[in-house]
């Protein structure tokens, strides 16, 4: 029996989100420069199925079709990302007018479809010359990013409804620089801490640049999840606290409180106190990306795996696997984790916390389960159940005091899932990677029904 759909407050906004590198393709088109992910994907063994993002989902050429699908969904917001190498192929200096023109057309198409554009300025695709000059280990990268933000905001500030400077900076620091699982593939462990501070500084500088250009509603998209210790032992509790600091509070505290968790400021480069004033520039919303909770324990001297990424034994915590339902990527399915983290953020930051938006939530299913059946449909019941239970968790968090203003599903179409290539599908719409034909899945119809029901209740 289908459960009644929950009702949300008036003004609550529904959306979808995607990234440039995962969807656009056209890596050599119209003056785009090379990125760190271009190089990383060319290295043998980096991508699970050996696939290439050269075409991805073909958004660069098919964006009107994808925007029309999101319009037909009934969504309010379309979150997308802008490729830094398309705008500034060298990372700074000469502006590529064709790159800006492309995103100009995308934004206008969204507005014509009645959608609110929500650009993200950075989703891990660093221009290669910036990386070759030191990347996010180099303070200069934060300054160049601020300049890039100003260029984009000058063009789009009159039409963009929401702004997100950097997506999930913790992923770049942890997987890109600390353990090497993502581009640029460095294995610096705790020597990668400067990338934390420099990304946070880039965030603050870009918030100021967007506002100076007249941009409205500037926020974040940070991944947050509860960190649950494997037991009540002092060792596991300490490991969980350390993990939470590293993945949650080292990012949220500087932005919202203007300070690092205890013990971290001393390890950061530069004039930290002055930088924190920039980093903590007030926001209009705080974006939360949520997929799975974290379960950790004290280290044993052996490496552990978290969603197929190895956590070195030198880390002061290890990931713990639990029995139960899993996403296609192996993450634990726990809707209550979303409710808990929304309430934890509300309690931790109090009046310093702007309204919350769930800027990413979604799942892949087990590989091979999302192809059209004999009836031509994709019956992704697992995704429907995941989304349904997480939407209800958001509603419960609102009832318990969290000020949540929106929920955006990741993602509108299937796409290139980083090191997993095309083996993992997150989309509400199926993409045939040979023909690029789009086929809405059952989850698309479910989300369409959910949004439509909210409209009917107003």
Description:
Helices cover 40% and strands 13% of the residues. The protein has 458 residues and is of the alpha/beta class. The chain has one domain (13-457): Glycosidases (TIM Barrel, Alpha-Beta Barrel). The protein is built from 14 helices and 15 strands. The chain is globular.
Task: Briefly summarize what is shown.
The protein has about 450 residues and is of the alpha/beta class. The protein is built from 14 helices and 15 strands.
Write the layout of secondary structure elements.
Layout lengths: L12 E5 L2 H4 L12 H7 L16 H15 L3 E5 L2 H4 L9 H16 L3 E7 L5 H5 L6 H18 L7 E3 L2 H10 L14 H20 L9 E2 L3 E3 L4 H24 L14 H8 L6 E4 L4 E4 L6 E3 L2 E3 L6 E2 L15 H15 L6 E5 L20 H19 L4 E7 L18 E3 L6 E3 L1 H16 L1
Parallel strand pairs: 1-2, 1-13, 2-3, 3-4, 5-7, 6-8, 7-12, 12-13
Antiparallel strand pairs: 8-11, 9-10, 14-15
Helix pairs in contact: 3-5, 7-9, 8-9, 9-11, 12-13
